[in-house]
Write a structure and sequence with these properties.
This is F-box domain-containing protein. By secondary structure, the protein is of the alpha/beta class. It has a domain at 46-160. The protein is 38% helix and 16% strand. It has helices spanning 12-19, 24-31, 36-44, 57-66, 86-93, 112-117, 135-144, 147-150; strands at 48-51, 72-77, 104-107, 129-134, 156-161. The radius of gyration is 17 Å and the shape is globular.
């Protein structure tokens, strides 16, 4: 693929700065196979954020083919009508323990199978932020994990609902 383009003249630091504002599927869809230089920039980028919310099937497939789990710092999961079965498909391709640099995990789903995986998040050294639909689910997953190891590093716990009863 020895083609080149104007993109090839941008410094890597500027391109990575732009990538900070995009989801992984947007980056791969827009920049994959643009040129050898672009592919090397994608390969070297280590701050991908994955969103499984309203992602098209071909973008999902492209992301799963191109992403390396150690490059991912954030995962957002929304198992809704727009993305049927993508959650299960994603975790059939990747083990959550492969995401060694994960810092943020957000769930916008009531699928209880996701919460069983959350106790593994305490194993990540850089993990800082957890976003869940309800405080009761947050309590359940944190108490199900090693609270002593997760809470000192957790800087942010976000919930959408907090029932008072």
């Amino acid at each position: 693929m020895s083609k080149s383009c104007l993109f090839d003249f941008f410094p890597v630091e500027i391109i990575h700065g732009i990538f900070h504002y995009l989801w992984a599927h947007e980056i791969f869809y827009g920049f994959s196979q643009l040129s050898d230089y672009a592919d090397s920039v994608l390969f070297g980028y280590d701050r991908y954020s994955i969103s499984l919310s309203s992602i098209l099937k071909h973008q999902f497939d492209l992301t799963c083919r191109r992403i390396r789990p150690e490059q991912v710092i954030s995962i957002t999961i929304a198992d809704n009508g727009d993305t049927p079965d993508q959650l299960d498909l994603f975790f059939s391709k990747f083990n959550i323990l492969q995401f060694i640099n994960l810092r943020s995990f957000a769930i916008m789903s009531s699928d209880q199978s996701i919460f069983r995986r959350l106790n593994l998040l305490c194993k990540f050294n850089h993990f800082q932020s957890l976003s869940l639909p309800q405080i009761s689910q947050a309590y359940w997953c944190l108490c199900g994990s090693s609270v002593e190891t997760m809470l000192p590093r957790l800087r942010q716990l976000i919930t959408n609902q907090c029932p008072l009863t």
